[in-house]
Structures are given as C-alpha cells and as structure tokens.
Write a structure and sequence with these properties.
The complex is a heterodimer of chains A (332) and B (333). Helices cover 70% and strands 0% of the residues of chain A. Chain A is mainly α and 332 residues long. By secondary structure, chain B is an all-alpha fold. In chain B, helix 1 (34-68) crosses helix 12 and helix 6 crosses helix 7. The chains are: A mainly alpha (332), B mainly alpha (333).
C-alpha cells in the first residue's frame, strides 16, 4: 500500500527526517549484531586455529587443559598454550539439551492439546497463566530450588550406596547430576514450547476439524490427525526455539549439573544419569575470572562462538518454520 | 454429560468466526476407545502436573521467604560476617535490580518501538527490512552469556572507559552502564515483537483516514497508531522487564564481583554509582546459594522470594493490561 496522500509541498521534511532517523537506528542494531559475530569469531580464532577439528574431539581433561591455558597466558606470548579438546563439554551439552527437549516435547504437546481442545473452561483459565508464570521464573530461582531441593533428594534417596561406591575412584555421586539438570531444564523450556504449540493448534481452520468430526471421527482422533498434523510447522518451530534456549542456559546448569568436566557414558548402565558433568555455557560462567589471560580469553570466546552459531542457527530455523504456517492459511 | 446430538446453531453474526467445535456441544469420552481415553487421562495428568509444579514453586518460596525475610534486609547492605545473622541484608542487590531494570528498559523501549515502527510503517528498502527482521530473531536467540562476553570486549575498550572504573589506562569494564546496555539487548526482541503485533493489528483504513486529513506518516504514527497500540507496547515492555530482572549471566560477568555498590571516586552523584560495579538480586541469589561464594542459603531464599514477588507482579500487570485492552476493544470490532 504505497499510496501517497500528501500534498506535494506539505510538511514532508520532518517525515523524511523521521524515516532517516529510524533507519539509522535499525542500521545500528544490525551493525551491532554483525560486530558481535565478528568480535566473537575474531577472538575465538587462535583457539580454533591451534586445535583444528581436534577442538571438537576427545582427549585429556578439559579442566586441566583450561588451567594450563590460563597459566601459560601469564608468561610471554611465545609460551601460549591453546590445546583444548571440548568433547566432554559438547557431550554434556548434547545429553542435557537432548534429554530436556525430548521430555519437554512430549509433555508440551499433550498439554498444548489439552489446553486448546480438551480442558474445561475453568481448567484452561488456570493452566494458561500457569504456563506463562513458569516461563517467566528467573533461571537463578530454578537453580536455587534445584540446589537446595532436587539435588539433595537425588543424592540421598535415588542414588544407592553401592552405586556411589562403584564409581568412588572416578567421580562422586552427590546428586549434582545429569538427571537434575535435565529435569529442571525441562520445566524451564516446556512452557515456551507449550505456548508456541497451542498458538499453532489454535490457528488451524475450524472447517477442517468440523469436516473430520462430521465424518464421525471422535474429538481425540480429530485433534491428533488434523489439528496437530496441520500445526506441524509450529511444533518444529517451538522445539527448535526451545533447543536454542536450552543450549544457551548457563546459570541454572552451572548450579545443578555438577561442574566437573566429565562425560557420562550411557554404556555404563542407568547410573550415568546420576553422574555429574558440565555443558558448554556453564563452563564460561565458571571460568569468567580467567578472561585476563589471553589464551584463556580466546578459549572462552571459542566456546561462545560454538554457542552463538548453534543457538542462532536454531532460532533462525524456528523463525523460518513458523513463517511457513501461513501456507496453511493460519494466522500464527 | 450432554448428548452429542447437534442442535441447529443460530446463525452467527457474519463478522464473528464460527464457534469452535467441541467446546460448545461437548462429546463425552465414554464412547472412545481405551487408548484414546488413556491419552486424555495423560493430558489431564500432565496439565495438573504443570499446575502442581507452579504451585510448589510459589508455596515453597513463600514459606521459606516468610521464614527468613526480614523487612530490614531490604534496607541494610551486605557486610562481611561469620554467620548469616551477622552479614547484613541485601539492600544493594535490591536497589541494583531496580537501577538495572530502569536503565535497561529505558534503552530497550524507545529503541524497540522505533525499530517496530520502522518495520511496519516504513520498511524500505525491502532487503533491509528482511535483514532487520532476521537480526531481531537472531538477537532473541543469542544466549545471554555470549552477550555478556561481547560486553566485556566493548566496555573494556579505552574509548568507552568513561562508563566504568579505569586506572592507569586499564579499563575495568564492569559497571551499571555496561550491564544495562547489554541487558537492553535481551529485552529488545520482546518489545519489537509485541509492538509490531500491535501495529499490524490496526486496519489500514485508519492510516488512510489520517493521511486523508493531511497528516504525515510520522504524525499519524505518533498521534494515532502508537496510542492505539499502547497495550501491546506496555506488554512488550513488561515482558522485557521480566527478562531483565531475571537475567543472571550478564550481571555476573558485567556487574558483579561484589555484594555492595562500589562507586567510582571523584564522579558526580548518580554517575559515581552507575560507573561502579554493583550487584542485583539474581547475582545475590547465585552467590548466596550453596554453589556460590557466600553460601548463605537462608538469605538466598529471602532474596529469591523478593525476586519472585517482582516477577509475579509483572505477570499480573500483563494480565490486567490484556484484560483492559480486550474490554476497550479494537478498531475492527
């Protein structure tokens, strides 16, 4: 709609100036993002350049490597050490994020369907604010409750003494564990997923559902076969956005995940869910005091670069998926 | 349970969408197969579980908060001490949260509204509009710890040294200015998204009516569009505020390291505090938890309770704005 209704000699100068001003603001924000990406990768480059693809591989203990890197930075620039193999952190990120996203996907899908189609009015009037509230609780409160409630519970009641003894030489099972991280992260990302899913399901055309109901298909089947299937882009978008949020979660996981560089091995049996570990983002928080040392600085920015790339990719993918909803005539 | 026999519906008014199936004439689940009924039971179970988790969080923190929170904690600063009764309160953290929230939102709100207005009302050239949209989405997806690290780079540069403490050319880089600027980026996407939604909901003929009486685009935006979209702008601002007061990673990196205000000597009044390091409630909770440096779980509970009250108040305010906006109605109805 680019129709100009303005008189030719009217007060157009202020309008053009406003457009230029807003345009400058927009350009500033775009430039800021580009500067952020450039800075992070520029700072990260020495760490990637020295390690190559081995950066993502296994080998040695990450905590010892970070310590070596830090100490080498206190001397001259010839002695810088960059050797860093992040596998333990990557694996921990993968396990915790993956576990939380799977659990949250399952529960959010059911809750979203319930919220839109099956909950009686009083129930949806309670559930909708509850979902919004759970999404807005600060992560540090989840972390605090995790440390003071969930972690002691796991340590005292779920982990048995023989289990503790069996790994005593390697790692201590005190309740700071994969399980605690996954459970709390699930509660943190499930509301985000639920709200995107329910927006998607709500925007399915009523005619399609009525058609199915008219054929004698019951409401449950209609919801799952028509509404949920039509809302698939919203489900993809919600899952992907929640994954991005989960990957970037630093503070809560720094508090409950155990904070040792260790790669829990599922091949050891079910005990691996009680083992501590530390994902990528909490590693930055825990080692933030090492920023003054040049090689350590570069290593932390390399971790940030991996986080930035994966989280930004996920959130752009989610945005693209959500836009494709309009193909189905939905307005979400 | 009502029978599922369809009653002939009265013709709905043409401008309203037809009623959704299911909610009005309820088909009971008695005729369903067992697997379907189990699925419905699972729905109920998970829905109730969500409610139970929320209730547990509120009730547990309420009990702990009443047990440990003393009003004087909000007005006495933290101090060194051997036991939890000697180490003072967390007034600096409380006021730090207020300062950070005010400064952060006063950057994010005008910037966010400006970007949203540009995207909806101007948006030329189209390529720049697309780039801006994806930029906002990308900023929303950046983990706040990455924003914090980026903040350490820009605010430790000598050009921005006047915003934080510096001695002998070395810029400290931790200050309320640094933290609030980065936190405003956390709130920005929420403000933009909400404002855009509000502007897009205004029908085109409203703009045309304004142009027809000779108003310029910017005058139309200021006098008609933004006042109409005020509920959505307010919602975006409050959602942004919630994210700002809840963020911890940026505070730990760009502001923390102390539990008290650390004003810079020799600066004029508000700037000495704003240039210095400080703390907020989230940082206090993080440090006072058993994994932090202070390890004062009782104070952590008290501070977390205050934080939760703030979040609950913001949520309630969003609800009130929504309800009032619905009562007033929009242009189209």
């Amino acid at each position: 709609m680019e129709v100009e209704y303005l008189p030719e000699d009217g007060p157009r100068v202020p309008d053009q100036r406003a457009e230029r001003l807003l345009g400058a603001l927009v350009c500033t924000v775009v430039a800021l993002l580009l500067a952020l990406i450039a800075t992070v990768f520029f700072r990260a480059w020495p760490s990637f350049a020295h390690n190559g693809l081995a950066w993502f591989g296994a080998g040695g203990n990450v905590d010892e490597q970070i310590n070596q890197i830090y100490l080498s930075g206190l001397g001259g620039s010839e002695g810088y050490v960059y050797t860093f193999h992040a596998w333990q952190l990557l694996w921990s990120t993968f396990l915790i994020t993956g576990g939380a996203v799977l659990l949250a996907l399952f529960s959010s899908l059911f809750v979203a369907v319930f919220l839109v189609e099956f909950a009686p009015e009083w129930m949806s009037n309670v559930l909708a604010p509850v979902v919004r509230f759970l999404a807005s609780v600060p992560s540090v409160i989840y972390g605090l409750l995790g440390v003071l409630v969930i972690v002691p519970f796991i340590g005292n009641h779920l982990v048995t003494e023989p289990q503790k003894a069996s790994v005593a030489g390697v790692i201590s099972l005190s309740g700071y564990s994969l399980l605690a991280g996954v459970l709390i992260l699930t509660v943190m990302i499930a509301p985000l997923m639920t709200s995107i899913f329910s927006d998607g399901i709500r925007s399915v055309r009523p005619g399609w559902l009525e058609g199915s109901l008219a054929l004698g298909v019951n409401r449950w089947r209609t919801t799952w076969k028509i509404a949920v299937r039509t809302a698939r882009p919203a489900i993809v978008a919600g899952t992907v956005l929640a994954t991005a949020r989960a990957i970037g979660e630093a503070v809560m996981l720094a508090m409950v995940s155990g904070s040792v560089a260790f790669a829990p091995n599922p091949a050891d049996g079910l005990i691996f869910i009680f083992e501590p570990s530390r994902p990528l983002a909490p590693t930055i928080v825990k080692n933030i005091d090492l920023l003054g040392s040049k090689p350590a600085n570069s290593t932390l920015f390399a971790i940030a670069a991996v986080l930035l790339l994966s989280a930004a990719t996920f959130s752009l993918a989610g945005w693209a998926a959500r836009r494709s909803m309009s193909k189905y005539g939905a307005t979400a | 349970m009502e029978s599922s026999v369809a009653t002939p519906p009265t013709a709905p008014p043409p401008n309203q969408p037809p009623p959704r199936p299911g909610k009005d004439a309820v088909e009971g689940s008695a005729t369903w197969r067992l697997s379907d009924r189990l699925g419905l039971a699972l729905c109920w179970g998970l829905g109730l579980l969500f409610c139970a988790i929320a209730a547990a969080i509120v009730v547990y923190l309420l009990v702990q908060g009443i047990k440990y929170l003393r009003p004087e904690m909000l007005f006495t600063p933290a101090s060194a001490g051997f036991s939890q009764s000697q180490s003072g309160g967390f007034s600096d953290a409380f006021f730090g949260t207020l300062i950070v929230a005010t400064m952060g939102i006063s950057i994010a709100l005008p910037a966010g509204v400006g970007i949203a207005v540009w995207l909806v009302e101007y948006g030329r050239p189209a390529a720049l509009a697309r780039i801006t949209e994806s930029t906002i989405e990308a900023i929303a997806g950046i983990p706040s710890i990455v924003l914090a690290l980026f903040g350490t780079v820009i605010f430790s540069s000598t050009a921005l040294g006047f915003l934080s403490r510096s001695s002998e050319g070395v810029v400290f880089g931790r200050s309320f200015f640094a933290a609030s600027t980065m936190l405003s980026l956390v709130a920005l996407p929420l403000v933009v998204a909400s404002t855009r939604e509000g502007l897009n909901a205004i029908p085109q003929h409203v703009r045309e009516a304004s142009y027809a009486v000779g108003k310029t685009k910017i005058a139309t935006t200021r006098r008609i569009l933004l006042p109409t979209a005020r509920p959505q702008v307010a919602t975006g601002a409050m959602l942004g505020l919630g994210r700002i007061i809840g963020d911890t990673a940026i505070i730990v990196v760009l502001l923390g390291a102390t539990q008290n205000f650390a004003p810079v000597e020799g600066a004029a009044f508000p700037f000495d505090y704003l240039r210095g390091a400080g703390t907020t409630l989230t940082n206090f909770v993080y440090e006072a938890s058993p994994t932090g440096n202070l390890n004062q779980p009782e104070k952590a509970y008290a501070a977390a309770f205050v934080l939760l009250l703030m979040v609950l108040a913001l949520n309630a305010a969003v609800d009130v704005v929504h309800r009032r906006a619905r009562k007033v109605g929009t242009w189209s109805s």
